[in-house]
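testing teh design pipeline on a random one, pls ignore if ur not involved
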């Protein structure tokens, strides 16, 4: 019996520490969303925008007046973070449409294009496992000045996600790559703020035009 106990203790001690990415670094954000839902519960059948900072910073009420939009963006997140918190972010709202943007941080963090596509597949599987009729639109990973050196990986990831979306009529792919480039085939500076990564008001105006057909 003593040997068994010590075997268990040793096994627990030998387990590797939980990687930082696996720790719930988004607890504060999720608590804020919980509080927001408690104060003003969104009605079912709305449009959930979820993903990283490009979603978080988007003034959705101004861009889509009159539409039941819900902003569940949390800055710095990767696709897998939305997968892990999908119940709170998406499923509880029973949306008719989800608009998703993430992948910037994934590629920058060293994830492969295939991993990005696989993580989005996991997100879709979780949503459709509970809400099979919900439409999901993936906004393609944007070209940016700050991360221009990664553009080939960005485009490879976008191509994989687009192919996945094409195979399911409930999915859509919003291509922002071409529209965000200038005559020199580089990102248009007026669409990005000084950090060369996040969108200006003009950038969001462009995105709104591209996304609107998917939400109306």
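output:
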């Amino acid at each position: 019996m003593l040997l068994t106990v010590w075997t268990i203790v040793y096994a627990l001690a030998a387990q590797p520490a939980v990687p930082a990415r696996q720790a719930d670094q988004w607890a504060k954000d999720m608590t804020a969303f919980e509080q927001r839902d408690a104060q003003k519960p969104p009605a079912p059948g709305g449009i959930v925008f979820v993903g990283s900072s490009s979603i978080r910073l988007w003034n959705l009420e101004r861009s889509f007046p009159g539409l039941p939009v819900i902003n569940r963006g949390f800055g710095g997140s990767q696709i897998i973070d939305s997968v892990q918190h999908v119940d709170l972010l998406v499923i509880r709202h029973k949306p008719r449409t989800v608009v998703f943007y993430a992948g910037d941080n994934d590629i920058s963090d060293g994830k492969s294009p295939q991993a990005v596509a696989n993580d989005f597949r996991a997100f879709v599987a979780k949503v459709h496992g509970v809400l099979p009729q919900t439409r999901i639109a993936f906004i393609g990973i944007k070209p940016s000045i700050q991360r221009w050196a990664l553009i080939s990986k960005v485009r490879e990831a976008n191509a994989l996600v687009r192919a996945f979306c094409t195979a399911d009529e409930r999915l859509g792919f919003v291509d922002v790559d071409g529209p965000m480039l200038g005559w020199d085939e580089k990102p248009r500076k007026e669409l990005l703020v000084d950090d060369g990564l996040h969108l200006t008001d003009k950038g969001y105006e462009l995105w709104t035009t591209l996304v609107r057909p998917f939400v109306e």
